Amino acid sequence: MKGKKQIAPRKRNEYIVFIIVLTVVGLMIGTITFFAFFSTFNTGREENDIVSQLPENGLTAVITDIDTSARWVRLYDIERARMVTHDISPDVEYFDNRGEAARAGDFAAGDIIIVVIEGGAATQIHHNPAAWEMRSVSNVTVTGSAIMVQNTSYSYDSGLVSLYRGETFDIRTLQPINVVTLRGYRNRVMAVIVEQLHGYLEIRGAGNIQNGMISVGTTEPQPLEQASTIMVTEGIHTVRVGGENICDINTNVNIRYGETYEQSIEA
Predict the structure, then answer these.
(1) CATH 2.60.40.1120 placement within the chain
(2) How far does Cα 251 stand from its chain's mean position?
(3) 24 φ/ψ angles, rounded to the nearest 5 degrees
(4) Greatest CA span in the chain, whole angstroms?
(5) pLDDT tens-digit readout, 105-139
(6) Do residues 248 and 241 make contact, with C-beta atoms less than 8 angstroms apart?
(7) Among residues 261, 213, 211, which one has the least CA distance to residue 235?
(8) Contact (CB, 8 A) for 101 and 35
(9) Which CATH superfamily is domain 59-127 in?
(10) Which among 127, 119, 71 has a CA at the least distance from the CA of 97?
(11) pLDDT digits (tens, 9 = 90+) for 10-69
């Protein structure tokens, strides 16, 4: 009579290790899934709690100008599409977008808020948790009454706040190379805060360089003959120039908005 087939000790140990590893991996996946679900659930609950705490009589607006020392604020009423100016109550309360206490200095032109007006004065000013923000974006184009960002179209109107270093800026002059922060409400851009505009880099003597190539900052090298004048974002950049009849050149340039920086190259 044949006996039962025995599992070799080595194979049995490998089988036990496999079962243990499989169990541990399963527990890890289960734990991660649980916490991810709990976090999402909890975040959603917190956001709902914040929204429920907002004042029902609040005005949704974007700040066009504010002076907390002189106690006044100029607003664009988003729902009614109109400009309004209000005093700021001496007892005003400020809140961040999580409903926690904030300071007057946390609010500036371009912020989207919910404000409570009582007796002609602002008594509560909240950062609006329903507002969105896209920081440091480029390739922004403006056409008619639309702003295109990454193949997505957003509307804007006369209430748009557009600023560069605290001064009003015409967004129709934006170039794709420029860097901006966008703030919006629903599908509308309400504020464009310009971070970087551009100047120009002019290469003198480019025609004397054989098969010359140039790169600015992190951009890909391009033929020098096609880049005698280059549009460059303001700030300090490293310029690299190479060619068959010159030693490679590495130099830093400081580009200022609206100005042209001249760089001479000799073969």
Answers:
(1) 198-264
(2) 30
(3) -65, -45
(4) 104
(5) 999 999 999 999 999 999 999 999 999 999 999 99
(6) yes
(7) 261
(8) no
(9) Copper binding periplasmic protein CusF (2.40.50.320)
(10) 127
(11) 555 666 766 776 676 667 776 665 555 545 444 444 444 444 456 788 999 999 999 999
What lies within 8 Å, CB to CB, of 57 at 6+ separation is 116
b/e code 28-59 from CB counts within 10 Å (16+ = b): eeeeeeeeeeeeeeeeeeeeeebeeebeeebb
Lookup: tokens for 139: 């390739």
Identify whether the C-beta of residue 74 lies closer than 8 Å to the C-beta of residue 85. Answer: yes
CATH tag for 198-264 (out of 3.40.50.2300, 2.10.260.10, 2.60.40.1120, 3.20.20.140): 2.60.40.1120
Q: Which amino acid is at 27?
A: L
What token pair was written down for 71?
Answer: 């106690």
Q: What is the pTM of this model?
A: 0.76
- Name the burial class of residue 222, with classes exposed (0-12), middle (13-18) and buried (19+) by CB atoms within 10 angstroms of its CB: middle
Instruction: Give strand ranges (E) for the chain.
Output: 59-67, 72-77, 82-95, 112-118, 121-127, 131-137, 140-143, 146-149, 152-155, 161-164, 167-168, 179-185, 188-196, 198-204, 213-216, 222-223, 229-233, 235-243, 246-255, 260-264
For the domain 131-196, what is the CATH code?
2.40.50
What's the pLDDT tens digit per position in 205-234? Answer: 888 889 999 999 988 999 988 887 899 999
Q: Where in the chain is the domain with CATH 2.40.50.320?
A: 59-127
Q: What is the DSSP string of 44-73?
A: HHHHHHHHHHS-TTPEEEEEEEEETTTTEE
Helix (H, G, I), strand (E, B) or coil at 7: coil
Spatial separation of the C-alpha atoms in residues 238 and 135, rounded to whole Å: 24
CA angle 141, 136, 62 (to 5 degrees): 75
